Amino acid sequence: MVGLGAGASLAGLVSAVPQLVWLSEHKALVFGIAGALLVIDAAAVVRGRRLPCPADFDLARACLRLRRWSAIIYSIALAAFAIGCVFEFVLPLLS
Questions:
Q1: Closest CA relative to residue 89, chosen from 24, 8, 2, 28
Q2: Distance between CA atoms of residues 11 and 64, nearest Å
Q3: Considering the entire predicted model, what is its pTM?
């Protein structure tokens, strides 16, 4: 935010939410926990694909729709995690 000229906004945000400093200092732990939770979620998504849907037509359609949404949301979360890892760990090594 400072690079975008929003230094005062960042100072106000840090004073309002001082826990952001702790998150910044322990980013490896935060990313590690997030990665572990994404692995657990991947197992749940894969397991959910193999479970049968109800026999009722409407419930089966809702089941398939929710499975599709679950996979989409997981993919978005995984992409956000990967982008965050690149910006936090890879790009600083290149500069």
A1: 28
A2: 46
A3: 0.76
